[in-house]
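User:
I would dearly like some help making sense of a protein record. Take your time, and here it is.
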Amino acid sequence: MRHDFEERKQNRIENARNQAAKNKKQSNELYNNANKMAAAIPFGQPILVGHHSEKADRSYRNKIHNTYGKAFEKMDKAGYYEDKAEAIENNTAIFSDDPNALEQLQDKLKELEAMQEFMKSANKCVKKKDKEAFLKLPFATEQLWVEINTPDCFRQIGCPAYRLKNNNANIRRIKERIKGLERLEASEEKEYIINGVRIKENTEANRVQIFFPSRLSKEAYKKVRGHGFVWCRSESAFQRQLNNHAVWLAKNLANQYPTLNQ
């Protein structure tokens, strides 16, 4: 599935945009219908309490109110899908499914390590009050020198310790992700059967896939879903991202299969 990462991303964006357009159209139709319904009532016409038309009139006005409400709900839903499409398109997170993930993570690591070295060197310059040395550092500017020499709310100057600590934590996290992807790329695809259930460690797709020999019952389906596996129609399998925990869960579900699907 890594080979079609961009295609799947574009499909998600397109689906969100289609849903936005669909809900916007439905909203406009409902709003226009409500306007037409409201136009049938003379302007300022009150409900004639006690008149034989009272019940029907109240019911008709409630329908108008509800139709307007549905129109606004559809418009809100259209806005949700528009925001979703934009979020997917502008998301800069590095996904393990991306075939360029390893390269992107390595570039990210270089950026974080360079920033860590800069902050350490900048603090040394601040401590020595050596502006000239600071301006020779990468990323350094006159404005930044002023900023890091201005006391913060704790009356401290320089790059704060929490930024160094957080950046270092991100460096460790990225290194772990790189190691994980390198292990994944070096590993071989595996396939085995437990209690008639075929399990595939699909390294190309970066997925653990479970192929059950028969259709699952409603309760079994819920349990499999509860373990983080989702149905993939194109693969005809339940799957989730490949890692040691996912493999253990797949084996555990396969071991339970004789009683799982009763």
Q: What stands out?
A: The radius of gyration is 30 Å.
